[in-house]
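Quick one, tokens below:
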């Protein structure tokens, strides 16, 4: 857009409105002048009659030509009178034309020339030639001169207005515009001043004040906004760091939960032989998670005697609980006594505790966190973590973790103790059961298989031999004159005799499947799988000879000076023996035959 100075615009506006105003005023004025001119023209005859006629008539009466001409000149000078013609009754014609007249006239007035006093006889005729143009010209001249005057006035006034406008308005506005252009929001600047008369207060000074106020307001606003932005940025940064911290904490809590969950699921229904390994594994997990240098679990029994020690160390860290022996905790350094009493030891800086270095074997520890593990209000152990390389301020959540793990360890220590007790009981029970089983199957006096055991085994051996078509034999034997032996040596000696014979049988029949048994008071039998009749006879003879060789004195025997036995040997004959009982009966019969044949022989 083209720049157009404000003063010029104002001037043009004033000129425009002034011209319009002047045109209006001039039109009114022209109308008034025209009306006055018309009236003046109409009044010319009366004016001449009233003002000029007396002197003119007197001069004509007196025939004073000079005066007459002078009067005619005066009449012709009346505005609108183009020329006058005086025609006297004496035939005199005097014409007087207005100077610079164009000879044009529109109205002609004829006036009778006569004296007003005395003789009113007509002295002649005065003819007036009146022209409108003269009046119009007069009006035009008036208007032109008026306009010229006003133009001059306006020019002077306009120059004055422009000068004042420029000094009081344009220049200050330009200065303000320049100041506004140079204004940099946010940069401090002194209040702007105008080159303006001092002590004046008007719209311009108000505009200046408003401009300065607006500038100050913008700067204040910007400063406040900057403060807000700074505060907002700080709040945002703080929020971001809190979110980051919170996220890390949540991650840690999640890992914490996963650790607790992993540990608890590991410990559920864990068998006794895996508990110690699981504790070691858990300590390693906890130590790694908590980023400590050592963590350890010490179990104590009801007398608070150390019963279990597990420890994990980070790489390059020496064991701390290695030196612990299995002695009462109360005999330990004061540290443990304090722990047993207080329940927890949270020592961020061990070097600040003078007694620590003297009482604790692990003098390298800088920080430690230990808790007493309780079960049903009784101490069952100690769980702790050490920092060796650097001191550590233990966090609340770490203490919580240690407590939770302590509770889980408490259960495991108790479970371990209970499983150990249960295992001991089971072992005792198994031993008792085995003893009972042995008791049920063996003879209490001699330790040989008893009758029940013999009956079960003989059936199985018989069936097996029948099934496989293998040979199978058995020997039955009975001490000769044992009643007399008892009678002579006493029942206790009789028992010892039975025991010696049993020991002999045990030493002689050691092949797999061979079973010596006591089947009656002084009756014995031997199962011989895989042995035929000839083999049975040989083994029976060897036995008889061995008994003989024992040389147990028997004073009341009627056949020898020592204890002897009679034997019956029989081998399985599938054609004769449909069951083992038939074999037993045959063996019994053979033994009977041996007895009948004089004893100390094989039937
Ligand atoms: N000391 C002792 N004696 C027993 C035991 N069991 C049985 N006897 C005795 O063994 C004796 C068996 O006597 P008998 O059946 O008459 O047989 P015997 O005297 O050996 O005569 P023969 O067999 O015909 O040679 C009885 O006197 C029983 O009291 C035992 O466990 N200990």
């Amino acid at each position: 857009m083209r720049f157009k100075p404000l003063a010029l615009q104002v001037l043009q506006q004033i000129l425009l409105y002034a011209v319009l105003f002047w045109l209006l005023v001039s039109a009114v004025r022209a109308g008034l002048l025209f009306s006055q001119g018309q009236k003046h023209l109409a009044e010319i005859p009366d004016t001449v009659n009233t003002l000029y006629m007396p002197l003119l008539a007197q001069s004509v009466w007196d025939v004073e030509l000079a005066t007459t001409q002078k009067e005619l000149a005066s009449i012709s000078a009346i505005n609108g009178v183009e020329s006058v013609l005086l025609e006297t009754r004496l035939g005199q014609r005097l014409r007087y034309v207005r100077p610079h007249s164009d000879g044009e006239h529109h109205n002609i007035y004829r006036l009778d020339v006569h004296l007003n006093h005395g003789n009113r006889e007509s002295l002649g005729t005065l003819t007036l030639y009146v022209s409108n143009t003269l009046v119009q010209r007069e009006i035009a001249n008036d208007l032109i001169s008026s306009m010229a005057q006003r133009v001059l006035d306006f020019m002077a006034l306009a120059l004055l207005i422009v000068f004042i406008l420029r000094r009081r308005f344009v220049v200050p506005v330009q200065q303000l515009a320049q100041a506004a252009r140079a204004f940099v929001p946010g940069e401090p600047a002194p209040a702007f001043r105008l080159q303006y008369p001092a002590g004046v207060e008007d719209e311009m000074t108000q505009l200046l004040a408003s401009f300065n106020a607006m500038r100050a307001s913008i700067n204040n606003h910007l400063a406040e906004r900057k403060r807000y932005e700074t505060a907002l940025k700080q709040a945002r940064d703080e929020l971001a760091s809190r979110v980051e911290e919170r996220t890390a904490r949540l991650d840690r809590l999640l890992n914490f939960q996963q650790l607790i969950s992993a540990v608890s699921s590991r410990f559920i229904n864990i068998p006794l032989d895996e508990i110690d390994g699981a504790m070691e594994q858990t300590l390693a997990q906890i130590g790694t998670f908590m980023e400590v240098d050592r963590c350890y679990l010490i179990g104590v029994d009801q007398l608070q005697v150390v019963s279990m020690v597990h420890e994990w160390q980070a790489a390059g860290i020496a064991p701390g609980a290695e030196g612990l022996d299995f002695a009462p905790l109360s005999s330990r350094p004061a540290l443990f006594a304090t722990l047993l009493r207080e329940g927890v030891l949270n020592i961020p800086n061990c070097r600040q505790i003078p007694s620590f270095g003297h009482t604790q074997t692990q003098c390298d520890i800088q920080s430690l966190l230990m808790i007493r593990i309780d079960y049903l209000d009784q101490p069952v152990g100690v769980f702790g973590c050490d920092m060796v390389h650097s001191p550590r301020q233990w966090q609340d959540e770490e203490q919580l973790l240690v407590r939770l793990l302590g509770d889980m360890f408490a259960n495991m220590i108790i479970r371990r103790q209970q499983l150990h007790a249960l295992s001991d009981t089971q072992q005792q029970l198994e031993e008792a059961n085995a003893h009972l089983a042995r008791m049920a199957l063996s003879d209490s006096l001699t330790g040989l298989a008893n009758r029940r055991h013999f009956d079960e085994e003989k059936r199985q051996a018989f069936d097996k031999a029948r099934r496989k078509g293998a040979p199978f034999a058995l020997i039955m034997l009975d001490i000769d004159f044992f009643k007399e032996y008892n009678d002579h040596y006493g029942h206790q000696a009789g028992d010892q005799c039975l025991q010696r014979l049993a020991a002999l049988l045990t030493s002689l029949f050691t092949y797999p499947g061979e079973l010596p048994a006591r089947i009656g008071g002084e009756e014995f039998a031997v199962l011989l799988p895989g042995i035929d009749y000839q083999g049975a006879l040989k083994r029976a003879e060897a036995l008889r000879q061995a008994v003989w060789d024992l040389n147990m004195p028997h004073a009341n025997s009627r056949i020898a000076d020592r204890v002897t036995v009679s034997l019956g040997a029989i081998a399985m004959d599938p054609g004769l023996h449909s069951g083992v009982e038939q074999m037993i009966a045959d063996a019994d019969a053979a033994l009977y035959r041996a007895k009948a044949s004089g004893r100390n022989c094989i039937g």
